[in-house]
């Protein structure tokens, strides 16, 4: 079907734009020898995994279920990190994961022998205490009181036997200048142990496929670790794989007025784009402007009972009408993976737009998907 024939609400992932992103990432791999794996927490659309697997080295997971997903659906390298592992899951994690990264020395001591007996590579997450983010403490692993990683003052060199790699993840939607700053802090605090390692993982948050991203600085950071310490370098971006490569197609259900014109949509910030409220941010909407920029301004809201279920205020050249279709951009990342069915809101369908512009719905959801989450 064509784009305009899709049901609403519907996520649409543009295959051509995914390939563009993958080619950029693969170019970094080819020029540097680094390995890049997909962070599934941002994008877990398994129908795209065969395509992604042609360009990247594998997947990384935040727990057992994501690890299973990457192992079963892509079947290449499978990495995992969790703040703590469950005893009733560790055996299965060891059976399917190539790299197992521990968050603390206590977790390392508890599960190291099992990981080594399984022939797995063991890593330790470090906290370089280097915050480079601006105003988003909720996404800053180096913020005070963070759960993530071992600080220099708590480091235990006597427990490093069997550990072959160090992992840090401090970025969120950032450029490579922040990676360079972080790498300086890593060397300052943990440099004396890097030469004992075989690999280092730069974590995620690298916006490598963004137009203004500085690839040269990224590649110099990679080469620095390779040349100075002989380390194999891993990166695990999530957003970069599907950045600006997806849409959310929605319809206007009703128009309302309460001091401002309001459009009630068949989608929901709360249920279908929760980062709008959590981050917060204003998602791009094709054909619209800022509030007051164009002649007709509307507040776009969802169907749920939450008063704050508001996507944002947008302006248009023409007044909206019931049945109008609106298309939000950059809706492949942190959307499908975070959806929920609060208030019994139906989940959006999922579609792929191929390189010829044809669309195919690959998944739909109904009442049983809502009911099945409850007891």
UniProtKB/TrEMBL annotation:
Keywords: Decarboxylase, Lyase, Pyridoxal phosphate, Spermidine biosynthesis. Residues 10-331 form the Orn/DAP/Arg decarboxylase 2 C-terminal domain. One of its GO terms (biological process) is lysine biosynthetic process via diaminopimelate. Its cofactor is pyridoxal 5'-phosphate. GO terms for molecular function: diaminopimelate decarboxylase activity. The keyword Chloroplast does not apply. Substrate binds at residues 239, 275. Transmembrane segments: none annotated. This is Carboxynorspermidine decarboxylase. It comes from Litchfieldia salsa. The lineage of its organism: Bacteria, Bacillati, Bacillota, Bacilli, Bacillales.
């Amino acid at each position: 079907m064509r784009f305009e024939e899709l049901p609403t609400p519907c996520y649409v992932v543009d295959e051509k734009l995914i390939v563009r992103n993958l080619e950029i990432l693969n170019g970094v791999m080819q020029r540097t020898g680094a390995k890049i794996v997909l962070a599934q927490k941002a994008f877990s659309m398994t129908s795209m995994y065969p395509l992604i697997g042609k360009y990247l080295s594998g997947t990384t997971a935040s727990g057992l279920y994501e690890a299973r997903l990457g192992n079963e659906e892509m079947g290449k390298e499978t990495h995992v990190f969790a703040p703590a592992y469950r005893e009733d899951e560790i055996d299965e994690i060891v059976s399917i994961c190539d790299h197992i990264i521990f968050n603390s020395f206590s977790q390392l001591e508890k599960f190291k022998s099992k990981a080594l007996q399984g022939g797995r590579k063991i890593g330790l997450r470090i906290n370089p205490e280097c915050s480079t983010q601006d105003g988003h403490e909720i996404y800053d692993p180096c913020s005070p009181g963070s759960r993530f990683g071992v600080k220099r003052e708590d480091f235990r060199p006597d427990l490093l036997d069997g550990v072959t790699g160090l992992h840090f993840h401090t970025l969120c939607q950032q450029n490579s200048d922040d990676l360079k700053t972080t790498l300086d802090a890593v060397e300052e605090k943990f440099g004396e142990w890097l030469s004992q390692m075989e690999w280092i993982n730069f974590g995620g948050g690298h916006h490598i496929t963004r137009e203004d991203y500085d690839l040269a600085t990224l590649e110099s950071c990679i080469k620095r670790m390779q040349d100075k310490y002989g380390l194999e370098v891993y990166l695990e971006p999530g957003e970069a794989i599907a950045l600006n490569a997806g849409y959310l197609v929605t319809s206007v259900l009703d128009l309302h007025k309460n001091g401002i014109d309001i459009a009630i949509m068949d989608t929901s910030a709360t249920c279908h784009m929760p980062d709008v409220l959590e981050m917060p941010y204003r998602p791009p909407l094709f054909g619209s402007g800022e509030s007051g920029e164009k002649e007709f301004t509307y507040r776009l809201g969802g169907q749920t009972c939450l008063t704050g279920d508001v996507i944002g205020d947008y302006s248009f050249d023409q007044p909206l009408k019931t049945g109008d279709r609106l298309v939000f951009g950059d809706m492949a990342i942190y959307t499908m993976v975070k959806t929920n069915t609060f208030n019994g809101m139906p989940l959006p369908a999922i579609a792929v737009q191929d390189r010829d512009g044809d669309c195919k719905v690959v998944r739909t959801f109904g009442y049983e998907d809502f009911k099945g989450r409850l007891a």
